[in-house]
C-alpha cells in the first residue's frame, strides 16, 4: 500500500514547542526530531493523543510513540497517524519505514522521500509475529546501549572524583592547550561499504556518540581530485563544529592512524600540546555538561538550520587544567573503561547486523510462512 493510503500527516493538530521552552518535569513529554525518545516536558494544554509515528524531517529519525498524550518540538517534526489500525499494525509500519534507507541530503527536508514509500501489508497475524520478533531484538540492542551509557557515566564519575576540587588546577582557554586545529574538505560521496584502496570522507556522525566510528563515511568517486586531505591519526581529537543544538561540539579520540579516510569541513582535527594535556583528559573535559552547554550557547544558526561554532569562540572556551601527572592517572583509568566499552560496542554491532538481517529477510517474506 502507498504511504498516503496508510498514513495521515497530523502535525498541525499539535502545539510546537521551541527547545528553549522544554521543562525538566511536566505533565506531558515533548517529542522532537532528536535521537532521544523524550526531549523534555511541557505543561501546555491540548497535547496530541494516541499511537503515532514521529519522523524527523531534517534528521530522518523515526520514533514509534505509544503515549496517552504528548507535545512536539518546534523544528522539523512530522506526526503520522495510522488510517487503518484495524487492518495494519502501526508498529509494523514503523518497523518497515525504519528498514527503508532514506537518502541523506544534509540538514534539508526528507519527508518527500518518506512519502514515496510503498509498504507491503501481509496478514495481520504475520504483522504481529514480525513486530514481536523485532521488539525482542530491539530490547537486546537497548540493553547493550544502556551498558555502554553506564560506562560513559562511569568515566564522568571518575573525572569528577579526581578533579572536582580543582586544587592543583588552573583556568585556561582551549587555545592555550591546543597546538593546531585543521578543518577537512567539503566533498560529497556515496553511502556504501568501502572497497580496498578506496578513499572515503567521514560523516559528522563518526563522532556524535562520543567515540570514533570508522564506519560512518561516504566513499569518494575514484576519479575525483582530492583538493585537501586531512587524515585522522592516533591520539587526534575530532570535533564536530556544526550539527544540531544537542550534538554540536561532539568529539572523539582517534584510536589509530587512517590513510583511507579524510575529514569533511564540519569536523576539526585537534592536535594538543601533549606536554601539558592528555587527549583523554581534554576529550572528557570538553564533554562535560558545563562545557557542552558553552559550545551550544556560542553556536550560531537560524531555527531549522544546522548550528555552527566558530574557531575563535571554540578557542575562547575555558577549561580547568590540572597537573599533567594527575591527568596521566586519569588517562590510564579512561583507557581501561574504553576497552570495556569497545567490547560492548563490538557486541552491539553484531546484534545490529543480526537485526538488519532479520529486517531484510522479514520484508522479503523469508522468515515465516503466510
From TrEMBL:
It holds the Pfam family Methylase_S. Belongs to the type-I restriction system S methylase family. The lineage of its organism: Bacteria, Bacillati, Bacillota, Bacilli, Bacillales. This is Type I restriction modification DNA specificity domain-containing protein. One of its GO terms (biological process) is DNA restriction-modification system. CDD domains: RMtype1_S_EcoKI-TRD2-CR2_like (cd17261). SUPFAM superfamilies: DNA methylase specificity domain (SSF116734). One of its GO terms (molecular function) is DNA binding. Keywords: DNA-binding, Restriction system. The keyword DNA-binding applies. It comes from the Bacteria. Residues 7-144, 167-339 form the Type I restriction modification DNA specificity domain. It comes from Alkalicoccobacillus plakortidis.
Amino acid at each position: 500500500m502507498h504511504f498516503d493510503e496508510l498514513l495521515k500527516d497530523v502535525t498541525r493538530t499539535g502545539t510546537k514547542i521551541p527547545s528553549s521552552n522544554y521543562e525538566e518535569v511536566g505533565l506531558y513529554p515533548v517529542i522532537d526530531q532528536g535521537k532521544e525518545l523524550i526531549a523534555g516536558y511541557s505543561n501546555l494544554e491540548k497535547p496530541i493523543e494516541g499511537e503515532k509515528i514521529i519522523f524527523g524531517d531534517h534528521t530522518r529519525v523515526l520514533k514509534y510513540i505509544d503515549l496517552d498524550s504528548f507535545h512536539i518540538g518546534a523544528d522539523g517534526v512530522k506526526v503520522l497517524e495510522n488510517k487503518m489500525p484495524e487492518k495494519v499494525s502501526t508498529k509494523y509500519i514503523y518497523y518497515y519505514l525504519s528498514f527503508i534507507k532514506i537518502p541523506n541530503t544534509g540538514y534539508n527536508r526528507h519527508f518527500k522521500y518518506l512519502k514515496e514509500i510503498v509498504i507491503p501489508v501481509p496478514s495481520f497475524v504475520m504483522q504481529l509475529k514480525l513486530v514481536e520478533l523485532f521488539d525482542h531484538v530491539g530490547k537486546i540492542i537497548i540493553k547493550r546501549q544502556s551498558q555502554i551509557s553506564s560506562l560513559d557515566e562511569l568515566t564522568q564519575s571518575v573525572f569528577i572524583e579526581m578533579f572536582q576540587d580543582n586544587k592543583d588546577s588552573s583556568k585556561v582557554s582551549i587555545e592555550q592547550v591546543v597546538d593546531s586545529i585543521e578543518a577537512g574538505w567539503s566533498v560529497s560521496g556515496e553511502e556504501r561499504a568501502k572497497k580496498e584502496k578506496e578513499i572515503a570522507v567521514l560523516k559528522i556522525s563518526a563522532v556524535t556518540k562520543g567515540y570514533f566510528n570508522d564506519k560512518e563515511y561516504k566513499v569518494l568517486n575514484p576519479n575525483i581530485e582530492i583538493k585537501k586531505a586531512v587524515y585522522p591519526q592516533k591520539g587526534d581529537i575530532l570535533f564536530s563544529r556544526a550539527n544540531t543544538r544537542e550534538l554540536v561540539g561532539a568529539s572523539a579520540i582517534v584510536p589509530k592512524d587512517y590513510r583511507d579516510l579524510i575529514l569533511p569541513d564540519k569536523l576539526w582535527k585537534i592536535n594538543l600540546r601533549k606536554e601539558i594535556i592528555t587527549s583523554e583528559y581534554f576529550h572528557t573535559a570538553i564533554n562535560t555538561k558545563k562545557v557542552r552547554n558553552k559550545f551550544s550557547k556560542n553556536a550560531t544558526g537560524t531555527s531549522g538550520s544546522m548550528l555552527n561554532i566558530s574557531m575563535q569562540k571554540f578557542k575562547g572556551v575555558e577549561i580547568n587544567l590540572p597537573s599533567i601527572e594527575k591527568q596521566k592517572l586519569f588517562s590510564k583509568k579512561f583507557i581501561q573503561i574504553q576497552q570495556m566499552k569497545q567490547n560492548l560496542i563490538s557486541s552491539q554491532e553484531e546484534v545490529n547486523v543480526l537485526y538488519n538481517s532479520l529486517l531484510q529477510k522479514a520484508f522479503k517474506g523469508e522468515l515465516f510462512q503466510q
